[in-house]
Amino acid sequence: MDKIGVIDTGLSNFGSWKNILLRFDRKAEIISESSQINNYSKIILPGVGKFDSAMRFLNKNRITEDLISFIKNENIIILGVCLGMQLLCKKSEEGVLPGLGLIDGNVKHLGNINDQKLRYPHMGWNKISAKRDNLLIPKGYEYKFYFVHNYYVELNDESLQIAQCSYVNNFCAAFNKNNIYGVQFHPERSHRYGLDFIERFINI
User: Fold this and answer.
1) Which of 65, 89, 186, 199 is catalytic?
2) Is residue 37 a contact partner of residue 65, using CB atoms and an 8 Å limit?
3) C-alpha angle 42/143/137, rounded to 5°?
4) Residues 42 and 201: beta-carbon distance below 8 Å
5) Mean per-residue pLDDT over the chain, rounded
6) Can 154 be counted among the known catalytic residues?
């Protein structure tokens, strides 16, 4: 049985992930230092809050370099959620520190894709649609997930996008590159849709 680790970014909603994984008889184990990373075959990178605060925490605890190395060389499967998805990219308009750089994309404010006066953050339930075949969000179904975010990922390689959502205009709701997955929504807050999603992640 795969061991699942949840990375502590100093901003993580670890309690939510602990409770949701227990529904699948899985114990969420927190990763707070780099020496723990190689104990897991699947890792969740959650996060709420600001980009620089999370990266500063990862850098301070020496998680950044080892996390990048294990994902690239050991093929650990990682799922970035909300801010965690954004941390997988190169940089963010929200801050000045570089991200993990595992995905060729940058993080931008949602206002960049909308010329209408909208409320930010984009918060609440919204539909997503799968853009290509993948293991987490099968095509041909309608999904609703819970979102809370001001920023979105702009990919330089659109083929990495596996699902999109619309807040007047479309933005990337999920991406996948080999063993790296990222989602802008919160599956741990998305009831039956989230449970289905998490079960598929567990079974990859």
Assistant:
1) 186
2) no
3) 35
4) yes
5) 92
6) no
Options 82, 89, 165, 172, the catalytic residue: 82
Active site residue 109: no
Residues 61 and 49: their CA atoms lie apart, in Å, by 18
Residue 80 is encoded by which pair of tokens? Answer: 């970035």
Confidence of residue 1 (pLDDT cuts 50, 70, 90): low
SS (H, E, C) 77-95: EEEEECHHHHHCCCEECCC
Listed in sequence order, the residues at least 6 apart from 134 whose beta carbon sits closer than 8 Å to its beta carbon are 162, 163, 174, 176
Give per-residue pLDDT as tens, 98-120.
999 999 999 999 998 877 778 89
Q: Two tokens at 190?
A: 């998305």
The pTM score is: 0.95
Q: Which fold would CATH assign to domain 4-202?
A: Rossmann fold (3.40.50)
Q: Is 188 a catalytic residue?
A: yes
Mean pLDDT of 177-198: 96
SS3 of 4-54: EEEECCCCCCHHHHHHHHHCCCCCCEEECCHHHHHHCCEEEECCCCCHHHH
Structural domain boundaries in the chain: 4-202
- DSSP, residue by residue, 138-195: -TT--EEEEEEESEEEEESSGGGEEEEEEESEEEEEEEEETTEEEESSBGGGSHHHHH
Catalytic residue among 142, 188, 191, 199: 188
